[in-house]
Every structure is written in structure tokens, then in C-alpha cells.
């Protein structure tokens, strides 16, 4: 059993982080390596990545990081920015096969539409949609309203309105009104 268990290879720290100089070095963003492109169905995974994936994906990741910085994603824990959505939209619109076509928003992309039909998204929480200023205005207005409703005179007025509504059967009057309106 001991022989069957694979023992981890422990390398000294210098060997772990000292890769050959030409390895792990990313080429210039969007630049295809020099030479004849290999056959995508017969080449090695490394060649496929270097010739077909990285020249498209790396500029997309760079644009993603710029957009994330613009959306202030690195400043707080929560944000409305969804990186996978941005990257999907960017890759779709920068596909070399779609050079002459106009920009397409994420939710207008055909395969995204199909996916969302079967897997609808939950609504985005209001806390992510509001700016700090809008949120503070909502909180302040709620607090002011609460403080006003706590006032004894306002409490008395609300009790009087409630009693009046009950005495005059306002809910029934409103129902009758709307049935008449719908009948017209």
C-alpha cells in the first residue's frame, strides 16, 4: 500500500520558483506567437493555448481588470459588477468572426438568451443598484418618517383615520368604485 501511494515531491524553494526564462512569460496582449499556426485538432495543448486561446483571452482579461477597477470592485466586498458577464460580452463582441457586426449587449446574445430562459437570474438586490448617496437618502427618509410616526399627535391622527376608515367602510366603497370603472 505504501508503494501505491504517490508521495509528494518536495523541492527546495529556489527550484520551485525558478522557472526557465522563456516559460511562464506571457506574450504581448493580443499577439499571436510567430511561426505557422499549428493544426488545432492535432497540436499539443500548450500550442493550442498559445496560438488560439491566449491571443484572444488575455486582452479580454486585461479589459476585465480595467472595467473592474472602473466599477470600484477592489474597494469593497460587494459590487453589482459581474466579471463573467463582462468577459462573455467582451469575447462575443471581439470575436474575429464577428468583425463587421455591431456591438451586442450581453442579454441580446443568442446563447445567453437561451440559457436565461432555462436558468432565470434572481433580481439584483437593491443594495447593489443604489449609489451610496441614494441609499443614504432612503435610510434618512425612513428614519425621519419613523420619528414623525412616533410623535403622540401623529399617533392620535392615525388612530382617528383608522377609526374613520372602519366607520365609513372605505375599503368596500373603493371596491365598488373600481368595479364600476372596470364595467365602463
From TrEMBL:
Coiled coil: none annotated. Pfam families: IQ (PF00612). PANTHER family: IQ DOMAIN-CONTAINING PROTEIN K. This is IQCK protein. It comes from Erythrocercus mccallii.
Amino acid at each position: 500500500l505504501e508503494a501505491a501511494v504517490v508521495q509528494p515531491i518536495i523541492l527546495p524553494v529556489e527550484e520551485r520558483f525558478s522557472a526557465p526564462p522563456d516559460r511562464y512569460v506571457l506574450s504581448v496582449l493580443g499577439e499571436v506567437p510567430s511561426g505557422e499556426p499549428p493544426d488545432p485538432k492535432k497540436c499539443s495543448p500548450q500550442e493550442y493555448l498559445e496560438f488560439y486561446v491566449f491571443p484572444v483571452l488575455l486582452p479580454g482579461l486585461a479589459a476585465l481588470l480595467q472595467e473592474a477597477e472602473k466599477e470600484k470592485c477592489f474597494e469593497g466586498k460587494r459590487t453589482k459588477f459581474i466579471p463573467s458577464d463582462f468577459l462573455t460580452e467582451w469575447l462575443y463582441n471581439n470575436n474575429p468572426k464577428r468583425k463587421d457586426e455591431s456591438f451586442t449587449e450581453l442579454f441580446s446574445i443568442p446563447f445567453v438568451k437561451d440559457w436565461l430562459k432555462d436558468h432565470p437570474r434572481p433580481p439584483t438586490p437593491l443594495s447593489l443598484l443604489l449609489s451610496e448617496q441614494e441609499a443614504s437618502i432612503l435610510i434618512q427618509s425612513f428614519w425621519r418618517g419613523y420619528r414623525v410616526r412616533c410623535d403622540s399627535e401623529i399617533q392620535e391622527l392615525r388612530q382617528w383615520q383608522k377609526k374613520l376608515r372602519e366607520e365609513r367602510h372605505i375599503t368596500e366603497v373603493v371596491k365598488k368604485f373600481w368595479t364600476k370603472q372596470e364595467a365602463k
